[in-house]
Amino acid sequence: MAPKRPRGAGAFPKPVESPVPAPPDPHALYAALDLGTNSCRMLIAQPKGSQFHVVDSFSKSVQLGQGLEKSGRLNRSAMARTVAALKVCKQKIDRHRVAQMRLVATEACRRAQNAGEFIRQVRRETGLPLEIIQPEEEARLAVISCAPLVSTKTEQLLVVDIGGGSTELVWIDLGQVAPRERPRAIMRLHAGFHPPESPFPAARVVDWISVPLGVATLRDMFSDVDSDAARYALMSCHFEESLAEFAPYKDEQARAGFQIVGTSGTVTTVAASHLGLKRYDRTKVDGLRMSSDQIEAVIRRYLALGPAGRRRDPRIGPDRHALIMSGSAILQALLRLWPTDRLSVADRGLREGLLYAQMSADGVLEDGPL
Fold this sequence. Notes:
CATH class of the largest domain: Alpha Beta
CATH superfamily of the largest domain: Exopolyphosphatase. Domain 2
Distance between the termini: 70 Å
Number of strands: 11
Strand order of the largest sheet: 8-7-6-9-11-10
Helix content: 25-40%
CATH topology of the largest domain: Nucleotidyltransferase, domain 5
Low-confidence stretches: 1-6, 8-18
Number of helices: 13
Radius of gyration: 23 Å
Structural class: alpha/beta
């Protein structure tokens, strides 16, 4: 007797679908927006262990500070560009139903005579509660964003945030903190540079400074110098002079145990050029350590390219070619002044600091390794 055919044989197999991942809890989502002199950038993220997971992001060059150096005011076209970008941010915030947010503006709005008018315009047209933060908070947020990159061998730390309109430097002494606790001690600075007494080991802020010179303001100051090389040299010397009152600059420091962490578009662009990346890759750039010789080689290559060559270089990009030499001038001045031949590259900054600060204050980050 012929065997009976099993029922259903020959039918197409029923597809097994992967379960759709559950959308993140809206009440666990945080937004952080950084409106600088050049760029408008936002992250939306949710806590994940001792870190966070980015759900959505936005970045656009708005050049809010265009013409500010001469007029002292934000011009109408710059404000219109910025409001248009902020409307996109508002759409993303609404789409994700973000519950917690902090949206801040920095140097351009600190200096502009009509900043209050602009903040009211933003609230009226977008509904976003944009606030202007002071230099100390900007510096503090940049520092805590870099906490995961701090080496356990670091005893003296200098964090440098090169912005469009200002540059913040913070010198921190970690000598009294146990090596494995050093990154965590940096994170605890979210409560302030001089936090209240705590049973935990403390990072001591030796000194900090906010220099009202960033990649845009420094470029504008020397825009009338025709020679590319001369303009670069003048920018670097001028920035170095502005650091004369920064206290640690006067003291001799040991090379061992000293770490500089640089966070800015300049630093990440120099790193991408050094690596020869055809397409920017944050995973290869963030945390990279570059020697001063490697940085010098990239800057010499930028000078050799000239303005036209830098404009065509895909690693620099159309938004940064006009600013990369002023940023490089700042970077070179920093490496001349302090005793290190290494720079840690941070593809992170104010937005990450805002997220860490909000999440730390809410107690939603686990107390584990960073």
